[in-house]
């Protein structure tokens, strides 16, 4: 069992399967199995709509009490370290901290300090986004019932995307066949071992899952921003109205959102019949319930706080 949830590296295919089953059970109305009272705090040092509200909804549905935490009004602004902030929250009775932070792998130093509370990574820079990964797996599983042999195209702002990095690791381990597209400069070396780069027009007709990624303008260099053309990107790497009919009828369109409408996909395709974008968000609540329940169960908390890094 794991006591913190920070990276795809921790998730074996068996754990992924267990969490998908539990999330599907929650979606079907299953009752949570957690000793209450239990206290959570969500620390978001980067903007978020979905992940923040989805974790809070999951915590409330599990019966947890959620303490509000706004970094801008906290003593972090006076120089208190993140580790001391978490020690403070633990000292007043918070048992789990859900953290989004701009620094890649910020959680590694926290885990090394063995802080007396559970840590869930809600996104670290361009590193990992494990809860998005798990809700993506749930959405794919709901549609196809398996992963082995599924053709998944991951397209867009690959190098800045923590979603791409978490999802590609796990989908690869589960036997999916990955291909990538988007601006070639963003297909960096780390993607090569998970699948080849192909033009968008070649990927669209063959995939079962088309996973589009947001262009993360906030992470682009000044030179990248100056060069960027919305129309050119949409034509070369977006799902346009012209390209959409080439998708298999059984294929689904995914996007972690927020969507840049008219860039990653045409405005009218966001809610098209093959889009699962809002279903991903809906599933996220149930998956986050399963993830939190998994790390907060008494058997997960007993004994030493060993972190199950398996890859
Ligand atoms: N998908 C996702 O992480 O969205 P937010 O940034 O709104 O949380």
TrEMBL record:
Pfam families: OTCace, OTCace_N
The protein's Enzyme Commission number: 2.1.3.2
Binding sites annotated in the UniProt record for L-aspartate: 78, 162, 214
A molecular-function term among this protein's GO annotations: aspartate carbamoyltransferase activity
Binding positions for carbamoyl phosphate per the UniProt entry: 50-51, 100, 129, 132, 257-258
Chain ranges of the Aspartate/ornithine carbamoyltransferase carbamoyl-P binding domain: 4-142
Top-rank taxon, per record: Bacteria
Single GO BP term: 'de novo' pyrimidine nucleobase biosynthetic process
InterPro entries: Asp/Orn_carbamoyltranf_P-bd, Asp/Orn_carbamoylTrfase, Asp/Orn_carbamoylTrfase_sf, Asp_carbamoyltransf, Asp_carbamoyltransf_Asp/Orn-bd
Pathway: Pyrimidine metabolism; UMP biosynthesis via de novo pathway; (S)-dihydroorotate from bicarbonate: step 2/3
Reactions this protein catalyses: carbamoyl phosphate + L-aspartate = N-carbamoyl-L-aspartate + phosphate + H(+)
Residues annotated as domain Aspartate/ornithine carbamoyltransferase Asp/Orn-binding: 148-293
Keywords of this entry: Pyrimidine biosynthesis, Transferase
Gene Ontology terms: cellular component: cytosol
Top EC class of this enzyme: transferase
Protein's job: Catalyzes the condensation of carbamoyl phosphate and aspartate to form carbamoyl aspartate and inorganic phosphate, the committed step in the de novo pyrimidine nucleotide biosynthesis pathway.
NCBIfam families for this protein: asp_carb_tr (TIGR00670), PRK00856.1 (NF002032)
Stored PANTHER family: ASPARTATE CARBAMOYLTRANSFERASE (PTHR45753:SF6), ORNITHINE CARBAMOYLTRANSFERASE, MITOCHONDRIAL (PTHR45753)
Family: Belongs to the aspartate/ornithine carbamoyltransferase superfamily. ATCase family.
Subunit text: Heterododecamer (2C3:3R2) of six catalytic PyrB chains organized as two trimers (C3), and six regulatory PyrI chains organized as three dimers (R2).
Protein's name in the database: Aspartate carbamoyltransferase
Species in which this protein is naturally found: Lacticaseibacillus manihotivorans DSM 13343 = JCM 12514
């Amino acid at each position: 069992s794991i006591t913190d949830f920070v990276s795809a590296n921790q998730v074996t295919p068996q754990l992924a399967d267990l969490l998908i089953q539990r999330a599907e059970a929650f979606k079907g109305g299953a009752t949570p199995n957690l000793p209450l009272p239990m206290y959570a705090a969500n620390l978001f040092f980067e903007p978020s709509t979905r992940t923040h509200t989805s974790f809070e909804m999951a915590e409330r549905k599990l019966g947890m009490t959620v303490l509000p935490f706004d970094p801008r009004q906290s003593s972090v602004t006076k120089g208190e370290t993140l580790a001391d902030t978490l020690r403070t929250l633990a000292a007043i009775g918070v048992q789990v901290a859900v953290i989004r932070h701009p620094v890649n792998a910020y959680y590694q130093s926290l885990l090394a300090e063995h802080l007396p509370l559970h840590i869930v990574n809600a996104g670290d820079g361009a590193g990992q986004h494990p809860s998005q990964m798990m809700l993506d797996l749930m959405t794919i599983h709901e549609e196809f019932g398996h992963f082995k042999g599924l053709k998944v195209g991951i397209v867009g702002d690959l190098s800045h995307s923590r979603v791409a990095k978490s999802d590609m690791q796990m989908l690869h381990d589960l036997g999916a066949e990955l291909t990538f597209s988007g601006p070639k400069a963003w297909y960096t070396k780390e993607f090569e071992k998970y699948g080849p780069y192909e033009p968008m027009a070649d990927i669209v007709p063959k995939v079962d899952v088309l996973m589009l990624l947001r262009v993360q303008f906030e992470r682009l260099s000044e030179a990248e921003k100056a060069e960027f053309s919305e129309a050119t990107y949409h034509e070369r790497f977006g799902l346009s109205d012209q390209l959409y009919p080439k998708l298999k009828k059984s294929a689904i369109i995914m996007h972690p959102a927020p969507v840049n409408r008219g860039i990653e996909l045409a405005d009218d395709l966001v809610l098209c019949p093959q889009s699962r974008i809002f279903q991903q968000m809906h599933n996220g609540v149930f998956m986050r319930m399963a993830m939190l329940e998994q790390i907060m169960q008494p058997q997960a908390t007993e004994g030493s706080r060993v972190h199950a890094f398996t890859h």
